[in-house]
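Exam prep: given the inputs below (a chain plus S-adenosylmethionine), describe the expected output before reading on.
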Amino acid sequence: MAVAGERAGRPAGPGPGCREEPFSPSVLGTREHWDAAYERELQTFEDIGDAGEIWFGEESMVRIIRWLEKQQIPLDSSVLDIGTGNGVLLVELAKSGYTDLTGIDYSPSAIQLSEKVREKEGMSNIKFKVEDFLAPSAELSGFEICIDKGTFDAISLNPDNAVGKRKQYVRSLCSVLKPEGFFLITSCNWTKEELLNEFREGFEILEELPTPKFCFGGRIGNSVTALVFQRKKLRPSILDKLD
Ligand SMILES: C[S@@+](CC[C@H](N)C(=O)[O-])C[C@H]1O[C@@H](n2cnc3c(N)ncnc32)[C@H](O)[C@@H]1O
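Solution:
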């Protein structure tokens, strides 16, 4: 499997922020692909108890947990994992003491798998729910932290109107994350500059988290980008319009 670690389907093109369609569409952007993938992983879990792929490796979870700990984010903060897959990140957060954890995924087999992993690990307080993040239910709101590991990447590869889906992703994020809440994204398809452009409306960058570097042709780059954004405060003029 690979979205992780590769910049999937990226054709040559002009510089960051200039492309409307930066990637070739791929099955990795479809629900059918993820349903089939997690159906297989569910079977493997039942056969041998293996939770399956950890996207971007264990270090990607350590990086997120370290940041939360460094910022002394209270352990009862509400955390949403967008496109949780097998839910292992939330299990690790629960092991680190976080108590208000929710994972959503549009693939019912991913949620089935994450519930089984939760059961095996004895972390019954983690909430999992089948939800399409591009059409979030009203109850999905007020989160203090949102985390995305590979889901914005997958959505960006959707063969059907990926540009519109990326815009909807940003709208959904604004509706589920509290003003001044934190958004931690790990991506292998987008560079830092491109992500800054994608999330420029309503978010400001707080920090780039260190990821492994590679050297190619004398230039140094990262194959994975990990950023922390903060949702901007609602301006009084916007609040007036919402009243
Ligand atoms: C690359 S996998 C990453 C899984 C998990 N975050 C991890 O790090 O292991 C992308 C995940 O996003 C989910 N996904 C893609 N589009 C989604 C959407 N619109 N709403 C909810 N989940 C989505 C897929 O089902 C899949 O579980």
